[in-house]
Design brief:
homodimer, 12 strands, Rossmann fold, DNA-binding, alpha/beta, four-stranded parallel beta sheet, 342 residues, 434 Repressor (Amino-terminal Domain)
Chain lengths: 342, 342
DNA sequence: GGATTTCTTGTAAACGGTTACATACTAGGC
DNA sequence: GCCTAGTATGTAACCGTTTACAAGAAATCC
């Protein structure tokens, strides 16, 4: 027939001599179509070189098989690794990922979320539990499911998957306390709009309090997420007349900075200073001295977040709060303080 | 009126008492609508809490304001940085990015490209110039523009933006040659399906040939992109009875591995071994010894790729082949070989 | 002041799929 | 052999926008 469309599903239908409905069925729900028809349609798809038009499909089915993720920054090994895992998993189940960054700005995060909802994502992966007030309302209005990743807060009515940062930081602090340190400082990430950073500081403080250890306020420094900033913080800390013998760091990158700067300033790690990190990035075991740190299975965590949403969207039963284990990895950067000062 | 829609552009139209066409115009082309109407519609958008439905918009306008990018892996500082820049730029001009990974597999890349086309991307950012035969044909069939990033090949009829890897590697080799080295090895990335890696090897070989330097074949090792593999390669190279006094590396991560392993094996860098990297990642200047390497403005490069596509899609005049400058950064990891062996 | 142009807004037909519903056919049951 | 239930396929409405075209109003020209 002359009027048949040149492309799209109608072209396939014309080629196979069937209706568009059958083509659609053969593609989306193969069992609902007889074997011979299915084969004929498959052949037609091949000859026409048909690639389905996702937006059209979404418009009529109200499902995009696309998830959105908003991370503070992608330029950070840990997020990169998490996103990579999430993406790999999603790809394996036929989903795609829209990735955006907020730069630790809550307004920007809301803006991005709006953008993603506009884009028609089926679900959203968010970082932590610290969001703009309007965010959850907006997601509820448009009934877009979401999950907070990287934290474990079973007390919240929202799904999450991650480690208990407070407990893990407590463990890290306990490690240096048990080694005999009493003069302990902390270099944390910026706590503003970052519940993970805050939780870690809280865990650290709890450990200190439980052992009756007082810490001078100047031993707590907050830094952005870069090696340079961490080095500067270390320079400050090590330059104090009254300085700590151990430093617990909010993450591994900060710990690297402290390590590098200590060595640069002539301090030996761990003899003069013990350093503990958090995250266990690749470099931690390669560095010399290698870094004692809290291992967090980042890849797993993000993949689980994806699994949760995919299952939820498929209508399956899911558990809302999933705790991911952490573990303390003791390496060369921590030792008893008795070796040097007492 | 009772029959007016509860949501979508029709709700806004009803609220403002205008037609959907006017709402659409007010949103997409504000100038085409009178000021008072524009204001009334803006108010209606606000009260209704309207978020446009991108797939529907795309279906009718044939434009998605979305680009796709396919990288070998995101779990790699350099790509992460590039993607971050691209993403930031796109976001600033109202575009979004679909990010997928191919794992250095050409078939997977084609598959991902098909997926992205299906998703309706307006353009595609690809890595290098080594793709599946069917890829360019498919993109041509669906008239999806693309650009190769990270290479500079003005001889090709396809757009690209990046540095001349051959020339840059030549420069790196020249550096150690000029320092007086004659016993020079190379640890490159896997050349299979990686034209950048091959170009770098070629540049290195050209420099060697130009100076009449012969290299025993066992001094060329190829490794995947991980610290562990690079360390193993270094262990092998340094374990040879007849070993080089300088090693040129295919990228910084490989160089880090060589550096770490050399130190671990008791060799001093640069006294016993000079090491040159390529890319100038963050760690290069922080490491001790800091790494001599080729600096490549990765962020710029990727942003330019985005700019090219956005301009091209806007119908603006664009230059097809954009060369991005590299520069040799001399740091502590290279020195004249005379200090030790001669 | 009437004709012509320009500007503003509305009407309705796409865009490319999915899917509720209708229909034709097949196979059992008795 | 007729009725019923079930299966396979087709018909066409609909998803939420954009946009070509039409129409009405205002401005310009002579």
């Amino acid at each position: 027939m002359e009027r048949s469309a040149k492309q799209g599903i109608r072209a396939v239908a014309a080629e196979a001599g069937v209706s568009t409905a059958s083509v659609s069925r053969a593609l989306n729900n193969p069992d609902s179509v007889s074997a011979p028809l299915r084969a004929r349609i498959a052949r037609a798809v091949e000859t026409v070189g048909y690639i389905p038009h996702a937006p059209a499909r979404e418009l009529s089915s109200r499902r995009s098989r696309t998830l959105g993720a908003i991370v503070p920054t992608i330029d950070n090994t840990m997020f990169a690794r998490g996103i990579a895992s999430l993406q790999k998993y999603l790809s394996s189940v036929g989903y795609m990922l829209f990735l955006t960054t907020s730069g630790y700005d809550l307004d920007a995060e809301l803006e991005q979320a709006r953008n993603l909802v506009s884009r028609g994502v089926d679900g959203l992966v968010l970082r932590g539990d610290c969001h703009h007030d309007g965010l959850r309302k907006m997601l509820a209005d448009y009934s877009v499911p979401f999950i907070n990743v990287g934290i474990y807060r079973p007390d919240r009515p929202y799904p999450c998957v991650g480690t208990d940062n407070e407990a893990a930081a407590h463990r890290a602090a306990l490690h240096v306390i048990e080694l005999g340190h009493r003069r302990i400082g902390i270099v944390s990430a910026l706590q503003r709009n970052n519940d993970r950073a805050s939780a870690r500081v809280a865990g650290f403080r709890r450990a200190m309090a439980e052992h009756g250890i007082k810490m001078p306020p100047q031993w707590h420094v907050e830094v952005p997420y870069t090696l340079d900033d961490a080095r500067e913080a270390a320079r400050y800390l090590l330059g104090l007349k009254d300085r700590p013998t151990a430093v617990v760091c909010g993450n591994d990158v900060i710990a690297y900075g402290v390590l590098l700067e200590a060595e640069r300033s002539g301090f030996s790690v761990p003899d003069d200073l013990s350093v503990v990190g958090f995250d266990d990035l690749d470099w931690s075991r390669h560095l010399r001295p290698s870094l004692t740190t809290i291992h967090v299975p980042t890849g797993d965590t993000w993949q689980r977040a994806g699994e949760y949403l995919v299952r939820h969207l498929a209508g399956e039963q899911t558990i809302m709060h999933h705790e991911v284990d952490y573990s303390l990895i003791v390496r060369e950067s921590t030792a008893s303080p008795t070796r040097s000062s007492k």
